[in-house]
């Protein structure tokens, strides 16, 4: 007798192996999409922080000491930022800490710059 094909058991085993591999690939794709979204959020948050820093560094007058917060629209979303201006050991310099929170909450970017005080 000649075997001309696969048995039902062989076919079922092959389908089971294929389905496990397909499920693993789907989970991997889901993780990749989540990571890409997280990186997008961090990238735009960093851009918002840098925008705030450029505005501070190019302004002729130094910002007042203390904490200020606001919202900037970028990438079609509203990003909450906080700026803390502090004194340094050198009275001629200010330390400025900028933090950006994502629209859904959670810190996504932080930046520190130093500029001359007026």
Defining traits:
118 residues; alpha+beta; Pantoate--beta-alanine Ligase, Chain: A,domain 2; four-stranded antiparallel β-sheet; 4 strands; rod-shaped
Characterise the protein shown here.
By secondary structure, the chain is α+β, with helices and mostly antiparallel strands. The protein has one domain (8-116): Pantoate--beta-alanine Ligase, Chain: A,domain 2 (2-Layer Sandwich), CATH 3.30.1300.30. Helices cover 43% and strands 33% of the residues. It contains one helix and four strands.
List the helices and strands and how they pair.
Elements: H1 8-58, E1 66-74, E2 77-87, E3 93-101, E4 107-116
Antiparallel strand pairs: 1-2, 2-3, 3-4
Radius of gyration: 27 Å
CATH T-level topology: Pantoate--beta-alanine Ligase, Chain: A,domain 2
Distance from N terminus to C terminus (CA atoms, Å) equals 98 Å
- Going across the biggest sheet, name each strand in turn: 1-2-3-4
**CATH class category name:** Alpha Beta
Q: What is the percent of helical residues?
A: 40-55%
Strand percent estimate: 25-35%
Tally of helical runs: 1
CATH architecture: 2-Layer Sandwich
**Unreliably modeled segments:** none
What class, by secondary structure content?
alpha+beta
Give the tally of β-strands: 4
Assign an overall shape.
rod-shaped
Mean pLDDT over the full residue set: 93
């Amino acid at each position: 007798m000649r075997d001309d094909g696969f048995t039902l058991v062989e076919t079922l085993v092959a389908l089971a192996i294929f389905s496990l591999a397909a499920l693993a690939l789907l989970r991997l794709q889901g993780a990749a999409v989540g990571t890409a979204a997280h990186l997008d959020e961090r990238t735009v948050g960093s851009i918002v922080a840098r925008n705030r820093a450029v505005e501070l560094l190019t302004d002729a007058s130094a910002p007042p000491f203390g904490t200020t917060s606001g919202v900037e629209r970028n990438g079609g979303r509203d990003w909450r930022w906080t700026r803390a201006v502090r004194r340094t050991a050198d009275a001629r310099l200010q330390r400025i800490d900028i933090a950006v929170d994502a629209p859904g909450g959670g810190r996504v970017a932080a930046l520190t710059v130093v500029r001359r005080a007026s």
